[in-house]
Amino acid sequence: MHNDSRFLKACRREPVDATPVWLMRQAGRYMAAYRALREKYTILELIHSPELACEVTMQPIQAFDLDAAIIFADILPPLAAMGLELDFVRGEGPVLYNPVRSPADVERLQVHPPEEKLSFTLDAIRLVRQELAGRGTPLIGFSGAPFTLAAYAIEGGGSRHYAKAKQFMMAEPDAWHALMTKLSQMVGQYLLAQAHAGAQALQVFDSWVGHLSPADYRNYVMPYTRQAIEMARQADVPVIHFGTDTNGMLELLRDAGGDVIGVDWRIELDTAWQRLGDGVAIQGNLDPVALFAPWPEVEKRAQHVLDQANGRPGHIFNLGHGILPETPVDTVKRLVDFVHEYSIRQGVR
Ligand code: CP3
């Protein structure tokens, strides 16, 4: 039954009755229900409690006609599981207090089975699957990609230029490869464990990969993303491979793996799909800032994305990056409904 959902069909490039839509970071601060829970709990408390994570995962599903749920978690707990001390600091975002700055720091990192250190998310997945059983809405599990995780591990938090991470890559190639080997094992095992717990699709977030040159991507990153995705594919569920600013490396990203490639708004959807070819589905790519515009402008831009896909099987509508905290909820609701209505009128083949 779940296999017949629009979302999973689109992942497999099968025809659907309407274009499936979900939104990256669809559970979050733009929703009053989420903010109310955040008054009482920190983000890590929400993530570490399977019951609360399940509740947050369901909030956007209850509010909008979304075609997929995504488990409420973050890309950074796997770094905590490897030995980095993680916190989210108000106004600053994520912080890792003991970042990786030397070959010895890489040695220190441990790859434990996800069942041991990340069982809260696996348990949350089991709970959400029970909640979703009646609706037939599929559940997406996710992980950061090895590069984006390495970037946080080395920087110790967010960064503008990723200078420390790239410097480490260039100055300490052996330690870099050792770090990426550990991260690809962690990511592969974590994704596989999520699928075994019940996730019906898996998304790999390589959010900051666009900071790399194509040559550096090929030499220092691609083999590790490929290993992680190959391990995840043992579960036989579709993998979505997402990155931002990937214009210069789109074909490489595709060759690293994934049944669906996620693209941002810096490239036209049809140009991206032409470059990617017939072998993959595509996810994207409305600018998240477009949701701040008056409705007629949002509609025009959403229509542009759908016109670019032109009813070709294998398009999953999404934003080009995560939804922003100040996004008007009413616009989100209208957008989700518009994607369905317009694509039905358009005739999805
Ligand atoms: O999509 C969903 O609804 C699932 C939940 C989800 C979160 N983070 C919850 C979260 C997902 C898929 C993520 C992924 C994530 N986390 C990424 C990749 C996606 C992307 O946007 O590129 C990245 C880079 C992170 C790291 C991260 N987590 C940052 C940089 C921040 C702070 C920035 C911010 O928006 O405040 C977080 C915190 C975070 N993760 C929040 C949520 C809802 C907001 C924290 C809060 O509630 O205060």
Distance N to C terminus: 21 Å
Q: What's the β-strand tally?
A: 9
CATH topology of the largest domain: TIM Barrel
Mean pLDDT: 97
SSE succession:
HHHHEHEEHHHEHHHEHEHEHEHEH
CATH architecture identity of the largest domain? Alpha-Beta Barrel
Q: How much helical structure, as a percent, in the residues?
A: 40-55%
Low-confidence stretches: none
Radius of gyration: 19 Å
Could you give the order of strands across the largest sheet?
1-4-5-6-7-8-9
As for the number of domains, it is 2
Beta-strand percentage range: 5-15%
**How many helical elements?**
16
Bound molecules: coproporphyrinogen III
Instruction: Specify the CATH class of the largest domain.
Output: Alpha Beta
Biggest β-sheet description: 7 strands, parallel
**Overall body shape:** globular
- Structural category is alpha/beta
Short description:
The chain has 349 residues and is an alpha/beta fold. The protein has helices at 6-11, 32-40, 43-48, 50-63, 77-81, 103-108, 114-117, 119-132, 146-155, 163-171, 173-197, 214-232, 250-256, 269-276, 295-309, 329-346, and strands at 69-70, 86-89, 93-96, 139-144, 201-206, 239-243, 260-262, 281-286, 315-319.
